[in-house]
Amino acid sequence: MNIVIIGAGYGGLRAVEKLIKNKNIHITLIDSNPYHYMQTEAYGYIAGKYDICDITVDIKQWCIGFSKDIKFINEEAINIDPLQYEIETTNQTIKYDKLIIATGAKTNFPIFIDGLEENTYGVKVLDRAYELKTKFEHIIYKKVRHSGDKKFNVIIGGAGLSGVEIAAEMAYISKKFTKSSGIKYSNISIILIEAYDSILNGMDQYIINNTMKRLKSLGVDVMTKSFISSVQKDKVILQNNDEIEYDFMIFTGGIKADGLNDTFDVEKNKLNQFIVNKYLNINGYHDIYAIGDCAQIQDKNGNFLPPTSQIAEQCAQNVAKNIIATINGKKLEAYEGHIDGMFVALGGHYAVGNILNKFKVKGYLAYLLKKVITKMYHYGLILRLNNGYKLRK
User: In terms of C-beta density within 10 A (0-12 exposed, 13-18 middle, 19 or more buried), how is residue 305 classed?
Assistant: First the structure.
């Protein structure tokens, strides 16, 4: 059976890992990028905590590491022909028996906020994360080169998980810079703007409360119930007509699916995500699955699940299991998604989170637990990658 997986994010790679174990399956993995980008660690990369090698993995070498029937095509998938069971990429046409779409999503810049996309940065793609990292380092450099009273404002629009983690890490790095250099960081302001009544809207109250305490201790200016009306090249204008000047602005206010979601004419929600059934099939196509951020994912009770790496990997495991069940003539299992826990990195060696929605942790212990989870994931990829290098020698 020929399985085509489009997208080498968290869901796409997990699907490969689960399906490759079956000897009757040939896998083709397609992605326009030659690397896997660990978006969950973007906050640390942007603030200078991590290097690019800490958050990326070479996909081709990773695939070679399996030493099995898998092919990586470094091209963009541009069209699906479900009647002919074909994928069109920039240079070729590929046949499939089963198709898994795991293309993720991009930053959603609401069109009603004038100037937002033109003047801000998103973090969903590595190119933009790199630009942000360079920009933040330049601000620190200017403080060293021209120590004085000039203020530097960094605005982060959206106080969800990404926005909060980036704000905390930037504030922590700024404070650390002060202690090590003696140059005052007080003129570097990190401003977090959120339209909802609270940061981390919808998350556990324990996480929200402790995150707020940590942000305040780091000197982050948190503005809730604040609606951005427009963004100019050097200032943000709020709905109440207040103006805030900035040196650069990051926007993390939500996601929107793109790519194949634009070209494949099937049912989608207002965020352009594919509508899927309980088996994660796109409605009307039992041989096409959509997982992760590119799809509207629900739990068994019909509640929408957040676009996280955890959910993407759960979806991948469920789809892989059902594809193998189909091959073996066994019963399919409906996806019953759930959040096993959540951690929020809050600068330095500090985090807050819960495990299985029962055990609540904060501080250094939470940081260690989050680090272990991240390292286990990364080391798993690196081990496979190193095996690929060995096979090529």
Answer: middle
HSE (side-chain half, CA atoms, 13 Å) at 134: 7
Question: Using an 8 Å Cβ cutoff, are 35 and 59 in contact?
Answer: yes
Task: List, as one string, the DSSP characters of 322-334.
Answer: HHHHHHTT-----
Q: What is the pLDDT of residues 204-248, one digit of tens each?
A: 999 999 999 999 999 999 999 999 999 999 999 999 999 999 988
For the record, the structure tokens of 200 come out as: 């981390």
CB 137 within 8 A of CB 248: no
Q: Which of 93, 82, 128 is nearest to 274 (CA)?
A: 82
pLDDT digits (tens, 9 = 90+) for 144-162: 666 556 778 999 999 999 9
pTM of the entire structure? 0.92
Rounded to whole angstroms, how far apart are CA atoms 210 and 374? Answer: 22
Q: Please answer whether residues 119 and 231 qualify as being in contact, where contact means their C-beta atoms are separated by less than 8 angstroms.
A: yes
Q: Convert the pLDDT of each residue in 166-178 to its tens digit.
A: 999 999 988 877 6
* Two tokens, residue 363: 């501080």
Rounded Cα distance between 123 and 83, Å, is 36
Could you give the 3-state DSSP secondary structure of residue 1? coil
Distances (CA, A) of 26 to 23, 35, 41, 95, 148: 8, 21, 31, 11, 62
CA distance 347 to 69: 42
Sequence-ordered list of residues with C-beta below 8 angstroms from that of 171, at least 6 positions apart, any chain: 190, 215, 218, 219, 220, 347
Spatial CA neighbour of 314 closest among 295, 288, 301, 331:
295
Domains of the chain: 2-107+255-340+375-392 (3.50.50.100), 116-251 (3.50.50.60)
The predicted-structure confidence for 343-363, as pLDDT tens digits, reads as follows: 999 999 999 999 988 899 999
pLDDT, tens only, 294-348: 999 999 888 999 999 999 999 999 999 999 999 999 999 999 998 888 999 999 9
Query: Token pair for residue 109?
Result: 């810049």
